Each structure stands twice: as structure tokens, then as C-alpha cells.
Amino acid sequence: MVEPIKGLKWKYGGEKTTDSFIAIDVDTKYQEIMGFGGGFTEAAALQFHKLRKDKQEEVLTLYFDKNKG
């Protein structure tokens, strides 16, 4: 499991004082995230197939439509 790293301290602002240093500039934007993806597994497809046609259309719209999803 993930365990805390002993001796590691989080500090806002500040100068580089060690060899290991991570700076996060919240004002710099490199790219836009459109989503995190997903997948239709066989199990999901079986459940999707059981939906009424209007609900299937709603799922597909919410899942894939650039403006409504």
C-alpha cells in the first residue's frame, strides 16, 4: 500500500533548498482536459442492452456527445 515518505514536508511558496524540488505553477495552463475516458466492457454492454431505446440514446449522448456529455 501507499505509505507516507518520512521526512517529506509540504511547503507553500519557498525556494529550492534541496536537490529534490517540485514547483507547481497554477497560473500556467498547457492543455485542456476533455475527459478521462471509459470503456464498455462486456458486462456493461449486457446491461446497456437491457435498457429501453430512449435510455440507450441518453447514455450514448451523455457518454460521447461533445456538448451534452
From TrEMBL:
It comes from the Eukaryota. GO terms for molecular function: glucosylceramidase activity. InterPro entries: Glyco_hydro_30. Gene3D superfamilies: Glycosidases. GO terms for biological process: glucosylceramide catabolic process. Keywords: Hydrolase, Signal. Signal peptide: none annotated. One of its GO terms (cellular component) is membrane. This is Glucosylceramidase. It comes from Phytophthora nicotianae.
